[in-house]
Amino acid sequence: MNVSNDLSEVNLILSRARVAQAEYEKNGSQDRYDRAAQAAAWAIMEPSRNRHLAELAVKTTGLGNVPDKITKNHRKTLGLMRDIAAVKTFGIIRDDAQTGITEIARPMGVIGAVVPSTNPAATPANNIINALKCGNAIVLSPSPKGVPSCETLLQFIHAEFDKIGETHDLVQMVPGTGSKEKTQRLLEISDLIVVTGSQNNVRRAYTSGTPALAVGAGNVTVIVDETCDLDAAAQKITASKTFDNATSCSSENALVVVDAVYDAFVAALARTGGALVTDEAAIVAKFWPDGHLNRAVIAQDADKMIDALGLEGTVPADTEFLAVETSGIGPDHPLSGEKLSRVAALYRAQDFDDAAQIASQILAYQGAGHSVGLHSTDPDRAIALGNAIPTCRVIVNQAHCFATGGAFNNGMPFSLSMGCGSWGGNSIDDNVHWKHFLQTTKIIREIPPVEPKVEDIFATYWQAAGK
For the whole model, what pTM was predicted? Predict the structure, then answer.
């Protein structure tokens, strides 16, 4: 491998992207930005291309399943297009006479986006649409297994660009099979980098010297309390846990169930396809045979997962996922971490307070900042979790992986990348969305002075503490 040639290729691609972005901004308009974003969205949403991308992703990565990837490609993109439809990202976007400040939307420039193999079409499409909507060019760096999907997605986008007379150089990717050297170069010379996936890439992004939108690790923990509708909770958890074979960072990894309803909830899970497994040691031995996750288990259909774990004939034939009883948390208890599979750790808590404590311990080990779920009819408990647990999101009575990244029945922005705040080592605590692809220039005009008297500021302090 000639690293020098590889890096020269990255440099060339970035140079072409800069030229294209400069023209895009100079001759930009809201209509142009909107049309380019629509072109990219239709490139993945058109049904035949959506199916082709879903089939290609499963074939080349070996992760997930085709029907769910079709759903993901469609709904994530449709939801994003709904979110940005009326958003103004060109020209003056705010003019406040009271403060004397006028804000002008400005692009970031060239976005470098590192995308994972778990969502090799939906995630880059999301980033591309946001970038184009805000006047940017974008260059993708996919994981090696995600290269075919990204190449095909770009072919589809460029075909749509040809219809509207837009330049291909606005949307490019690092050529070849992918390498750490090329990705590192992209991180160093882009104007903004967006990283989803490997925490190693996240760390490299934050130390690259380039402004970074990088997201934390998921290890979703969900609490089931004694007040909830157990059957509804079981149905939602099963639907979420099994979607796209648990490739989502928002898939439930640990279920913490209050003792008063533990047995009833296990029975409810059984009715929806969740099989209880009590032999933790046997699962761990099969799941981490050499200290690493067994690839025959990761993001596989239920029958393949069950066979790889040696459970064929020992769990019901209609099993959709496994709930493995455990009480351990931390590096010596791998079930307490992210598993990227149809396997969830199952914990028994004495009561809600104990459940909250268990959830906190799990997140302290892995997944801090990302999100927790709560199935409960007590509204105060969601607030209690929001005040006590190191998390940026508390998802209440919803199928977690559908809700966290935005849904048509909640107010979260549609996204496949979740910021985890300082708890997860991130600079943002929001879902990555269009606002993060835009910056502003502010025109500041003089206004009548607003200067308080000293006593107006300190009167209550003086009363409490004296002068």
Answer: 0.95
